[in-house]
Amino acid sequence: MADEPENRKRALRAELRERRRIRTAPERERAQTGITQHLVQLASDLDVGFIAAYLSTPDEPGTRDFLRWAAERGIRILLPISREDGLLDWAPYDGEDEEQDILGMPTPTSELLGPIAINGVDLILVPAACVAKDGMRLGWGRGYFDKTLGSMEGCPPVYAVIYDDELVDEVPAERHDMPVDGVVTPAGIVSFAAA
């Protein structure tokens, strides 16, 4: 059946959304501490000076403490802003005011840059519902990051930020789905071997 991968994705996303929703505040705090520590380690190991990341929502594994750390060290940061045409614009992270994009995702209020502004970054951090141990990422179903990653020439390392139990054996995948190079979880950094 042609819709089978999409139906499996939809069911898995619903399960993962619910798991995230019911995490307790202490679980989130412990996860936040580990994720921040490992994001700092990854950025330091890769000696990054320019990254593309995202502002986490309350249910997502937290990226905000890491972004503050990076900004304090002079690392340039771009954050995505969803467009109606399915592409991502980018805006510099200034640590100031936030608003919501067309999907209701938090975005900065700084200068809006176009889709190619991401070219030249040293590291890309992406959200994910879960990631398989072969690096295949299951996003939230709109394809914004898949389009961005699929269109880049000379793409830098791409890491998804997830909870430990969201690193799974396999995910349903379709031709347009893009893998990641690794994941950052509360427990550590996992890098996948290049295929």
TrEMBL record:
It catalyses: (6S)-5-formyl-5,6,7,8-tetrahydrofolate + ATP = (6R)-5,10-methenyltetrahydrofolate + ADP + phosphate. It comes from the Bacteria. One of its GO terms (molecular function) is 5-formyltetrahydrofolate cyclo-ligase activity. Its cofactor is Mg(2+). Pfam families: 5-FTHF_cyc-lig. The keyword Amino-acid biosynthesis does not apply. Its EC number is 6.3.3.2. Keywords: ATP-binding, Ligase, Magnesium, Metal-binding, Nucleotide-binding. Belongs to the 5-formyltetrahydrofolate cyclo-ligase family. This is 5-formyltetrahydrofolate cyclo-ligase. It comes from Protaetiibacter mangrovi.
